[in-house]
Amino acid sequence: MRLKLLAALATATLLAGCATPPPPAPGSAASKVVVMGKLSNIDIGPMRVARENGFMTVKVSLTNTSRSNKTMFYRFAWLGNDGFPVASEESWKTLSLYGSQSTVLPAIAPVPQATDFRIEVQAQ
C-alpha cells in the first residue's frame, strides 16, 4: 500500500514538472500580445492605454535585448466590448530596432467603438 502511494506521489510530482505555464491574467499586458512565430531578443514591456477625443490610444514599450539590429512586424486588432473586431484588419507594419535600442510604439484606434485591443507581432 505504501509503495503504491509513493509511486502515485512520484508520478504526480513528475507530471507537475511537465505542465505548461498558466496563461496570462486577463487584462494584463501579456494577454494583449499574440506572438506569431518566433520573437527572440525583443521584450515587450509596459503598455499605456488612454482614451483621447473618444478614440482609444495605446503606447507599447519595446526593447531590443541583443546587440544586433532586429526587424519586427506588427499590427493591432481593435476589439469591442464583446471581444470581436470593430475595425477592418490592419496591414502588417515594419519596425527596425537597433542593437540595445528601446522605443515606444504608438497606436490610435480607427473607430471610437474600440474598447480593447490585441497586438500581433513577429520578428525576422
Question: What layout of secondary structure does this protein have?
Answer:
Layout: H1 2-17, E1 33-35, E2 42-52, E3 55-64, E4 70-79, E5 93-97, E6 102-108, E7 116-123
Parallel strand pairs: 1-7
Antiparallel strand pairs: 2-3, 3-6, 4-5, 4-7
Description:
- This protein has 124 residues and is mainly beta.
- It has one domain (25-123): Immunoglobulin-like (Sandwich).
- Helix content is 13%, strand content 44%.
- The protein is built from 1 helix and 7 strands.
- It has one helix at residues 2-17; strands spanning 33-35, 42-52, 55-64, 70-79, 93-97, 102-108, 116-123.
- The strands form 2 sheets. It has a 4-stranded mixed sheet with strand order 1-7-4-5, with no helix packed on it. Strands 2-3-6 form a 3-stranded antiparallel sheet, with no helix packed on it.
- The chain is globular, with a radius of gyration of 20 Å.
- It starts with a helix and ends with a strand.
- The mean pLDDT is 86.
- Keywords: Signal.
- InterPro entries: DUF1425, YcfL-like_sf.
- Residues 1-18 form the signal peptide.
Label this structure with key terms.
mainly beta, Immunoglobulin-like, signal, globular, three-stranded antiparallel sheet, single chain, 124 residues, four-stranded mixed sheet
Oligomer: single chain
The stretches of 5 or more residues where confidence is low (pLDDT under 50) are: none
Summarize the amount of helix as a percent range: 10-25%
Strand order of the biggest β-sheet = 1-7-4-5
Averaging pLDDT over every residue, what do you get?
A: 86
User: What would you say the CATH architecture is?
Assistant: Sandwich
The total strand number stands at 7
Strand content: 35-45%
Q: Which CATH class?
A: Mainly Beta
Q: Strand count, sense and closure of the main sheet? A: 4 strands, mixed
CATH-derived topology = Immunoglobulin-like
Anisotropy-based shape: globular
Radius of gyration: 20 Å
The SSE string, one letter per element, is HEEEEEEE
The total tally of domains equals: 1
Distance between the termini: 56 Å
Number of helices: 1
Pfam families: DUF1425
Keywords: Signal
